[in-house]
C-alpha cells in the first residue's frame, strides 16, 4: 500500500514515554509514504525521557525557538488577533509562521496532530496561514482539562478524530464539531505465561493521579495471600514507599517490559480514576498491550475503558476509588485460574479483531483523503 499524500506531524515534547502509540503511528505512515519529503515530522522541544527507538531522531526536525526564527510566512491580522484574544503569546506566532513556511514549501497536503493543547493550537495557526487542512486526534486530557485555546483550535480543524465513543461525547460537550471515532490499536504479541510462585500483579503506568496508584496499593494490602506487585513507570517512592512484594522499577525500555511479561504475569491491574483537576484516562495503551499478550485485566469503569474491557467477559471492571472492590476482583482471579485464562484469551482475541494497526492505518489515510476532497 502506498499513498501520494505529503503528510506532516507536529509533536510537542519528544520523546515522551506515554506517547509511544503516536510514534508507532508515525512510523507506520512512513512505511506507506511515497517519495522524499512525503512525511515531515516536527517537534517543539526535546526531552531526556527514555527513547524507545521507534522513530529515527535524524528524521525529526526541531522547530526553532521564537528568538531563532528569521524567515517565516506573514500572518493575517484577524488570525493574530484571535490568537491573542484566546490567551496566546505573540512570540509563539513566530514559530507557527515558520511551520507555515516550511509546510508550504514542502508541499504538505495535510497536517496531523495528536492531543488538544499547545501543539495543536500552533499547528492550527500554521495550517490556516499555509491553507493546509489540519486533522486533530483528541484524547481525554485536552477535553477534560481544556485550556483557553481549545475552542480556537477546534474551530480551525478540518477533521476531529476521537479515540473512543466516550471521547467523542466529550468533544460534543465542548464543541459542535463533527467527530469520527478511530480506536487506538496495539501490535500483535506473544502470549504471556502465568507466573510461578507468588501471585504476580503487573502495573505499567506513569506516576500521575489519574492512574490510581494509592487505590491499587490499598487494594493489594488488603489481600490475604502472597502477592508480587511489579510496577513499571513509577518508582517505589512514587507509589507510596516500601511495601512487601513491591518491585517498582521506574521508567523502563520496551525490552525490559517484554522481559517482565515473558517471565510470567497473572494479572494486569490499573486503578484508573478521575484526578483532582478532572483529568482521566481515555483508553490506556498499557491495558491494550496486556490484553494483546493474553493477560487478564482488572481496571475501573473510567473514561472509555468500558468500550475496551467488558466486565465478566474479557476482564473485570470495578467502580473507581474503591480499594475493597479492587481487592475482591484480584482475589477472584487468584482463586479461579480458569476464569483468568478465559479473560486473557477473550481479551487477546478482541484486540486482534478490533484493534488492528493495519486497519486503523487504512481508516486514517481515508480520513486524510476525505479531508482533501472536502468530505469531512
Shape field: elongated
The computed structural class is alpha/beta
Tell me how many strands there are: 13
Q: How would you state the average pLDDT, rounded?
A: 94
How many domains? The number is 2
Overall CATH class of the largest domain: Alpha Beta
Straight-line distance between termini: 23 Å
As residue ranges, the low-confidence spans are none
The CATH topology annotation of the largest domain reads as Rossmann fold
Q: Numbering strands along the chain, what is their spatial order in the largest sheet?
A: 3-2-1-4-5-6-7
Radius of gyration: 22 Å
Helix content: 25-40%
H and E order: EHEEHHEHEHHEHEEHEEHEHEEHHH
What is the name of the CATH architecture of the largest domain?
A: 3-Layer(aba) Sandwich
User: CATH superfamily of the largest domain, please?
Assistant: Glycogen Phosphorylase B
Percent of sequence in beta strands: 15-25%
Describe the sheet with the most strands.
Answer: 7 strands, parallel
SS element count, helices? 13
